[in-house]
Design a protein that fits this description.
Helices cover about 40% and strands about 20% of the residues. It is α+β, with helices and mostly antiparallel strands. It has a single domain, classed as Aminopeptidase (3-Layer(aba) Sandwich), CATH 3.40.630. Strands 1-2-3-4-5-7-6 form a seven-stranded mixed β-sheet, sandwiched between helices. The longest helix has 15 residues. The radius of gyration is 16 Å and the shape is globular. It starts with a strand and ends with a strand. About 35% of the residues are buried. The mean pLDDT is about 95.
């Protein structure tokens, strides 16, 4: 397994990782009519706006990504000015879309930022997804340790992440790496870790 800084030309492959892990870590292909939507929301902003913390995972080809963000509030502001506008034009709200597609399109048009209470102590965040062939080899913890070290070295005081409430396997990995539960909803746990 090798981590490399993600390149814009890897966008399609990385978007596909988001899709094939888009159902709580399982293949989400059957959930979406538009196969690019998950990537547009959860991968593209990092590749293009936070490239110093965006890594592709290579294991017999591109097998995942590790995406970090040093300052969540700053990234949210930059997305509002330079990422969401083009997507809003490309994805108008359309009630005839499949519900899962509609949910992502609504997010593009009205993104929900993280709370100030969370960002005060945990301003950074991250995403990790690995395709099935890269799972079960210990790559997840290695990738997590790598991006945590990168964020800490860059001056972060704390990091958060969101994980599907149904993804018990990922939650176990995060807990083993020092994350605790900050909040819980029906579909998501927000987990946090402070840096020393």
């Amino acid at each position: 397994m090798e981590l490399r800084l993600a390149r814009p030309e890897e966008e399609n492959a990385l978007y596909n990782v988001a899709l094939v892990t888009g159902d709580g870590g399982a293949d989400g292909t059957h959930l979406f009519d538009d196969p690019r939507l998950l990537g547009e929301v959860f991968v593209g902003p990092y590749i293009h706006l936070e490239p110093e913390f965006a890594y592709s995972v290579h294991y017999d080809g591109i097998a995942g990504y590790v995406l970090g963000c040093l300052d969540t509030g700053s990234l949210e502001t930059r997305c509002e000015s330079s990422w969401w506008p083009a997507l809003r034009a490309a994805y108008p709200i359309d009630v005839t879309r499949r519900p899962s597609d509609q949910e992502l399109v609504r997010f593009i048009h009205a993104p929900e930022g993280r709370s100030e209470d969370l960002l005060r102590d945990f301003p950074s965040h991250l995403h990790i997804d690995l395709v099935p062939r890269a799972q079960g080899h210990g790559f997840g913890p290695r990738c997590l340790e790598f991006i945590l070290n990168r964020l800490a070295e860059a001056g972060s005081r704390g990091v958060h992440l969101g994980v599907a409430a149904s993804n018990a396997r990922a939650q176990k990995v995060y807990r083993s790496m020092g994350f605790g539960e900050w909040s819980r909803s029906d579909d998501e746990l927000v987990m946090t870790r402070q840096f020393d």
